[in-house]
Structures are given as C-alpha cells and as structure tokens.
Amino acid sequence: MNATPSPFHCVLDIRASLGEGPVWSVREQVLYWVDINAPTLNRFDPRSGRNVAMKMPAAIGCFAVRESGGFVAALRDGVWLLRQDGTVERQLARPPYDPSTHRFNDGRCDRRGRFFPGSMNERRDAASGGLYRLEPDGGLTEVCSGETIANGLAWSPDDRVMYHSDTPTRTIRAFDYDVATGTPSNPRLFHRFDHPDDRPDGGTVDRSGCYWSALYSAGKVVKLSPDGAVIDAIAVPSKCPTMCAFGGPDLRTLYVTTARQRRSDDELAALPFSGGIFAMQVEEPGLPEPTYAG
C-alpha cells in the first residue's frame, strides 16, 4: 500500500540523533521522550513549545513515569529509578546482557504497573536480545528471547493480547497475555512486512484495538486492524520514524518521534525536520499510558 500524503507536521524541530520512546503524561499534559544517543530524557510541553532535556549517565532505551513521581528508566548499565528532574535515585536491576555489545531498547508498562524493557544486540549478528518484566518490587525476569532488536511493545485494550516486534525480521508477533501474572504465551504472526524498508519500530494501540507501527527506513506509520490487516499507511516527513504515542487532552493527537542518525546530506536537505517530533490529529483516541507502580 502506498503512503498517503502526510498530515503530520513538525511540532518540535529538535534534530535529535535518535529520538524515541514518546510517553504522554495525562497528569502533566506533556510529552516525555528520549534521544538514545545524546543521551537525554526530554519533557516537551506542546502548549508552550518548550522542551527541557535532562542528561542521562548512559544510553537510555526506554522509560516510564512512576505513579509516585519521577521515572523508571532502562539505561545501558541497568534499570534505575530517576527523580522528577532526571537525576539518578538508585539502581533496581543490573543489565541482563553484556553492555559492551547490548543495550536496552523499546519498552513500556502494562496496566498493572509492571515495566517491560526490551534489549537489542548492537552488532546485529545474533538474535540475543529479549524482553524483560520488572515487577514493582524491582525483580527482573526474561519473558521473551531470541530477538535481535526488541521493539513495538503494546497491549490490546482488554489486556488479552500483547504485541511485540523484532525489527530486522520485519515481523510483529501477537501473544496471549495473562495480565494477572504478566506472562505472554502462544506467540503467533500478527503481521510481516515484505518491503526491505518496512522495518517495524515502536508501536501503540488505539481505543478500538488497532495497532499503529512506525516503520523505520520507510518514512511512514501504518495502522493495522486487530487481525493484522493494513488499514492505512501515512507518510511522515522523515525517513526514520521511530515510535508513535497518543496524547493531547482527548488522546486524539498522534505524536511520532524520528531519527537523524546516519542520514546523508542529500536526505537531510530534502527532509530537514528529520530528528524532530511530528503530530497529527486522529479520529479514534488512544489509551492513557500506564505508570510504573514501584
């Protein structure tokens, strides 16, 4: 399916190297996001247009807002609690991999307040990444393995289905999900993209159960039905969209982070807002992003 003309517009021309992980705070009405390479955790207020960057001590793959204030963050050197200003409070878990070749990547909380960070093999020479469950008490358990770049984590509105992708294989899988225990099972194909550039990165689910995926290298976001069929493909004014999130007062604004890393001068001249944050309005709202209960 060809991408439709882009309704996205740049709301923050920040030129991030690897913008990722947008999380809308319903409580604050702001968008948090990360630049993995900078590395920074950022707070963007769309009302004022102001972005505040909080320096991180190591590459930050993903994070979640804590219910009690501050954040939980998956850094290269482990999972940490951060204060509201981004300073480190304490470590919850050591990295479950070799930090010289691996780092944390995409992740988020489920609606029981558990944090699920994924990992990736930066060498991309083995499927040695996985997905982990961090309990509110800080216990870390692997729940999925055999992935190169863990990505696209999301849940259906009824919490019965978990979605997860491995970007290099261009595959999104669906799992049965036991919300009582935080355990995925029965993995199956949800959607596989055929074009080499259609690489599923971060994703999210709207209130109707449709899954939205940012396709890194393809310059578009796709909307998939609950049975995995492509409903729409929407162009983004950047070749490398990384993740989408619903925000705004009514959760009908779709935000998309993008990357600028490793892009040619010609491409950046044609797509100058690469590395920015884009937004468009949608009819079907998203779901409030869960917070970490620990």
Describe the fold and architecture:
Helices cover 2% and strands 52% of the residues. It has a single domain (9-281), classed as Neuraminidase, CATH 2.120.10.30. It is mostly beta strands and 294 residues long. The radius of gyration is 17 Å and the shape is globular. A hairpin with a 4-residue loop joins strand 4 and strand 5. The model has no long low-confidence stretch (mean pLDDT 96). The chain has a four-stranded antiparallel sheet with strand order 1-24-23-22, with no helix packed on it. A four-stranded antiparallel sheet has the order 2-3-4-5, with no helix packed on it. Strands 6-7-8-9 form a four-stranded antiparallel sheet, with no helix packed on it. It has one helix at 265-270, and strands at residues 9-12, 19-25, 30-35, 40-45, 50-55, 60-65, 71-75, 78-82, 88-93, 102-109, 115-121, 129-134, 140-147, 150-155, 161-166, 171-178, 183-192, 199-205, 211-216, 220-224, 230-235, 241-247, 253-258, 277-281. The chain is built from one helix and 24 strands.
